[in-house]
Amino acid sequence: MNAINEQWPEAQDTAVLRLITAGSVDDGKSTLIGRLLLDSKGVFADQLRAISGSKYTRAPDQQYDLALLTDGLEAEREQGITIDVAYRYFATPVRKFIVADAPGHEQYTRNMVTGASTADAAIILIDASRVKDGQLLPQTKRHSTLARLLGLQHLVVAVNKMDLVGWDEAVFNRIRDAYQDLADRLGIAAFHMIPLSALSGDNVVQGSPHTPWYRGLPLLSLLETLPLDPVRDTGQVRFFVQWVIRHQGSGPDAFRGYAGQIQSGSWRVGDTVQVLPSGQTATITRLLRGQQALDEALPGDSITVVLDREIDVSRGDLLTDARVPTNVRQDFEADLCWLDQQALNPARLYWLKIGTRLTQVRIQAVHTRRDIHELRAVAWNGTLAMNDIGRVSLRTRDALVLDDYASQRCTGSFILIDTATNQTAAAGLVRLA
Questions:
Q1: Which of 109, 217, 246, 320 is most buried when burial is the number of CB atoms within 10 A of its CB?
Q2: Tens digits of residue pLDDT in 91-103
Q3: Is 263 helix (H, G, I), strand (E, B) or coil?
Q4: Which CATH superfamily is domain 328-431 in?
Q5: Within the chain, which residue ranges are assigned CATH 3.40.50.300?
Q6: Which CATH architecture has domain 238-321?
Q7: Residue 327: Cβ-neighbour burial (10 angstroms; 0-12, 13-18, 19+)
Q8: What confidence score (pLDDT) does residue 415 get?
């Protein structure tokens, strides 16, 4: 990040927008990110020299193959596809950006879920030359569905390769109508749509003379103006204990503290906390950020909490506001995106990790599976295979603090881990409503 700060010193204190590019294969996701990096001066000269001399370049003469700026794996460059999520960083005087380039192939849908889980916005790319009779490609529908399920704040639809259809406004309008129908069926309240060419840079950072009929902002200007709720704060205090600190050993200034990050809510010295799942309570006597004493800790602060009495607190416990009732349960429903090559096996136990808490869980039943073509959940009592999305019932060994994902992400999302292979088996979103 030092290079970014040196280039745009005024951006050091600006907000960070985390975004992901998604869509079908060859829609131009990697090229678009490369164009954003190049035109925002986020690429070093030696990087340009490296891609210009690459044996894998597929660009015309005198042009850079911008996809090579993000496709870093040898297999990606050989095949001309994106396989794993690649993260890139750049900044403008207005905002910092962390952008994830997600694969378009169906078999790598799980990688898209990984990248989107921490994103604020998604750019769904659509190749204008591949939309026939208003029929969007399956992966466009799948990634839009995932963006909706994951609750991303903003959705930008980039209609790419408009140069291949002669910058025809009628083509753009047909794609806009098709996507509006998709958004209505998925329950997407609003989205932005931009006609562009990632290869030539039209409407990416600068406007384009080819689209006098387009009245909106170029992509980068739009990303700079998207409003952000940086902490998604619901007011409910959620603090997972990451580490129990024994400071100064047995010295006169010794104390035991509990280190972690406040996910939501705020604390002041003197507040009463409850330790869950045990239910014990205590009062905060000190809040520390490193060696610095704080009067108040806010969402996103990494702190050490010191309590007024010795109680049993361990890694994985959750500290909350004792005055606010908290939902603790073992049985619940969730949407699962199955990530493992081994299909779901209801007869097996899995590890469930939520925050820093690890416990065993059994999947009691599969209720529905999402049909990506019909864009709805259909009744299902079978298993879930890799990239399937389904609603399930689970029962954990230990009682957990759970919130609906839509209201509280830190206690509303989890992963399942295969107890035999230690592979991440699924990503889950708690559904309590």
A1: 109
A2: 888 889 888 877 7
A3: strand
A4: Translation factors (2.40.30.10)
A5: 2-225
A6: Beta Barrel (2.40)
A7: middle
A8: 94
